[in-house]
Design brief:
Elements: H1 2-12, H2 49-73, H3 77-100, H4 121-128, H5 135-159, H6 163-192
């Protein structure tokens, strides 16, 4: 998770020729990566500004719901409290979106199955269900998801030519940096124990 996040942050800063191997160096068999930065972006790129708001709002709600679902699975009280706090954090982000873009907040948002960064909620829940057992696991998962969102919004802000959409994506990237900073502080505090 951390290497993927690091690779995406490097890419966002203009580095090229970055590779992140599934399974780590042990899984490397000499193959080469293929694809480009735009691959898979068609799901996220909309012509309409309200659709961009709706996409962001739905992903925030999806992440909130994931944190709440994980809270039901963990037994540790500290882990439960952190997941509840992360869910409230996403609710606060939704409130900021509604306040900043009231014209997009009038209609009910559609699906919440996609999380920040485009992940599918059920796939993540199924994949991490047995691996999320500690505060460290939860913080690392949150950092991965927030980094994915930061990467997504940063790439979209560079890709769009519409100035209003560009400003929106830059705002969202700034918010994701704040989320990531919060999780980083939590991780530092955990390591200091």
């Amino acid at each position: 998770m951390r290497s993927k996040a690091a690779a995406q942050l490097l890419q966002a800063e203009g580095f090229t020729d970055i590779y992140n191997m599934s399974g780590g160096i042990i899984a490397y068999e000499g193959g080469k990566a293929a694809g480009n930065e735009e691959q898979g972006m068609e799901y996220f790129v909309r012509e309409n500004f309200d659709d961009v708001f709706q996409m962001s709002y739905a992903m925030e709600e999806g992440l909130k719901q994931l944190y709440l679902a994980l809270e039901e699975l963990v037994e540790d009280d500290e882990a439960k409290a952190l997941l509840a706090r992360l869910a409230k954090f996403e609710e606060g982000h939704k409130a900021m979106l509604r306040a900043r873009f009231p014209e997009g907040a009038g209609d009910e948002v559609i699906s919440t199955e996609s999380l920040e960064g485009g992940f599918d909620k059920q796939q993540i829940l199924d994949h991490f269900r047995d691996q999320i057992t500690s505060l460290e696991d939860i913080i690392q998962l949150g950092m991965m998801l927030e980094t994915q969102a930061l990467d997504l919004y940063s790439r979209l802000s560079r890709k769009t030519e519409d100035e209003e959409s560009k400003a929106f994506f830059q705002y969202m990237a700034k918010e994701e940096k704040q989320h990531l900073s919060f999780l980083s502080d939590e991780y530092d505090a955990l390591l200091a124990m």
